[in-house]
Amino acid sequence: MGSLLLYVAMLIAGALLLTLGANYFVEGAAKLAAKLGVSELFIGITLVALGTSFPEFFVSTIAAVKGSPDISIGNVVGSNICNIGLILGTTALIRPIASVKSLLKFEYPLLLLSSLLMIIFSLNYVIGRNEGIVFLALLIIFIAYLLRSEQKLFQEIEEIPKATPQQSIPVLVTITAAGLASLIGGSELFIRAATFIARALGVSELIIGLSLVALGTSLPELASSIAATLKGSAEIATGNVVGSNILNIIFIIGTVSVIRPIPVKEELLRFDLPVMMGFTLALFLLLRFASKISRIQGFLLLLSYIIYIVIIYNQGRF
Question: What are the residue boundaries of the structural domains of the chain, listed by start?
Answer without folding.
Answer: 2-314
